[in-house]
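Hello, quick one for you while I still have it in my head. Could you read through the record and tell me how the C-alpha cells relate to the sequence? No rush at all, and the record is pasted right below.
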Amino acid sequence: MKKNIIFTLMLAACGLTFVSCSEDDLSSESIITADKVEKTPLDYWLDANFVEPFNIAVKYRYEYNETNNSYYTVPARYDDAVLMAHILKYCCVDAYVDVAGLDFTRRYFPKLFYLEGEWHYRNNGTFELGTAEGGRKIFLMGLNYLSGYYSDVETLNYYYMKTIHHEFTHILHQTVEFSAAYQLITPDYKTDKWSNPEFKDYLVRGFISDYAQSNYHEDFAEMVSIYVTKSAEEWEALLAEAAGTAKDPKPGRDLIEQKLNIMRAYMSDQWGIDIDKLRATILQREADVANGKVNLTDLTVK
C-alpha cells in the first residue's frame, strides 16, 4: 500500500511538471548568439567612403573564415587599419575614378579587402604581400608595418600599393582575358622555381620582375603593377638593364616592350584606361601621401 501511495504521488508530481511546462511562453530569441561588435569611428568612416558609394567592404577585425589557415596570421592593428583605409581610398579607388570613371570603379574594383597584420611566409624563403580570390576579394597583409613605410613612395609601393594594382589586374583579366600572344613572348616560365638564384637575371631574359617568371598571368599582373608604380625614369632604368651592355647585348628590353605594347592595348581597348595617365595619377597621389599632404587619420564622416 505504501508503494502505491509513493507511486501515485510521483505521477502527480510529473503531471504538475508537464502542466507547468506547457504553460511557459516560448521565447522568440535564439539562445545561440553571435558576437556583437560595437561600431568604431573607422566603421562609420568605411561605411561613408567605401560601402555606400562603391559597395566595397574593408574588414580589419580578425575573422577565422576569412583567414588562410595554412599560415600564421596576425590581426591588423586598428591605427594601421585607419592609415590603410585612407591610403587605399586616396591612392587607388580615387585614382581609378579619375582615370577610368565612377561606373568602372564601382563595377570592377574589388568588393572586399581583408587586412592582416603580418605577411604570409612561404617555405621557400619568400612571403606573400597579398592575394586575390574569386575575382572580387583581396587579402592585404603586413598592415602592422605600414606606419613605418607609408612616408616613402618606393617602400609604400613595394609592400602595399603595387600589390593592390597587381591583384586588381588579376580581377580584370579574370573578367576578360588578354591576348594569348602575350604568353608566347617569353614562354620559359619557372612555376615554383622562379626564386632560385640561377634565375635572378630575369630582366635580360624579358621579365620585369623575378616573380613574373612564375607564369604568364603573374607576368602580366607584374607588368601592370610595376609600370603604374614606377616613374618614367625608373622604368627606363629597368629597360636599360634589360638591354645588357654594348659588349654583351641582351634581348630583355625588346621582349619587355613587346609585352608592354600588348598590356597597353588591352587596358585601352578593353577598359578604356590610358595606362600612362593612370600612372601619373597614382604617383601624384602617392607623393601627396608621402609628403604629408593627406590627413590619414581623420575619421570625420561628412
About this structure: Residues 60 and 115 are 5 Å apart (CA to CA). The chain has ten helices and six strands. Confidence is low (pLDDT under 50) at residues 1-24, 30-34. The first helix runs from residue 2 to 22.
